[in-house]
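Hello Y.,

Per our agreement to keep a running log of every chain we model this quarter, I'm adding this entry. I've kept the format consistent with earlier entries: sequence first, then predicted structure.
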Amino acid sequence: MNALRTLARVPRATIEFTNLLLTTADAEIGVSPRDVVWTHRQTTLYRYRSEKRSHPIPILLVFALINRPEIFDLRPGNSLVEYLLDQGYDVYMVDWGVPDEADADMGLAEFVCDELHWAIRETLRDACQDELSLVGWCIGGTLCAIHCALHSDSPVRNAVLLTTPIDTSGSLYARWVGNDEFDVDLIADAYGSIPGAGIDWANKLMKPVTNYVTTYRRLLQGAIDGRDQRVAYQSMAKWVADNPPFPGQAYREWITWMYKENRLVSGRLSLRGQRVDLRRIEQNLLVVTAGADHIAPREGTVPLLGLVASEDVTHLARPGGHIGLIAGGKAKLEIWPELDQWLSERSGL
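Predicted structure for the entry above:
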């Protein structure tokens, strides 16, 4: 009887499943109220509005150069920004914007030594504080680590690195783009700024069964099970589909220096004549890794723990994926409280 009832619901579920895919663009993401603090080129620094600021040390959120930073503020009820605000933090976020052909010459030095450096300065100026907590995710975490390694006098008190590539030597991505057959110069020269959709497509092919089979099977079941799963899918799908271009020079350097030559962990990376030495990182350090992360595998992040000079080092090794660990449905009950506990103990004057 239950099987018959399920079969009877399939046509309706199929219609809802189709509507689900067609209405993804209507999903609201990144809706927490915020104000522009500073802009430069395509970069914008935001401060989120709040009346609960009880922790003096502000937080600056930094995401990758691919996809949009609204993953920090995915949807009402499932937003890391919303959660941090509720815990009394003063929250800022860097948005790299949508680069165009005029930004194709921006390399990693421009993002780390200029845009991020100035965003830190403007955050402190706006918050009237001398120190901040830097929270970087994915490539954003790598940029944050590089900043801390370049500046022994950095005003960053706490550095939180979420699923962050450091040592790429054993990764699947390195096997794809790190060999001589992958001509990164040809791609960067041909496109100027690399289409984000192409990078997203390559990332999805790293786990094709999960991304192209399991996901849609779950969606069909979600169309049967109810609204909550549909809303969760719509917001995440809208975010995933928003892929800004990757500036050509930054892409060239990221692939070459991180995947072809693995310079960061070996101490051979330099920006503007200054060597990036991870042993100069002295901040209170929280490193979060995900067991099912195929983009920044745990074994490619943990070498950092043995390199830094920080006396306060915490590693949270948790199950989950590269994005799902921090932005998935279980995050607010699992990893977010752990982030809050760590930060709250280190965010007083």
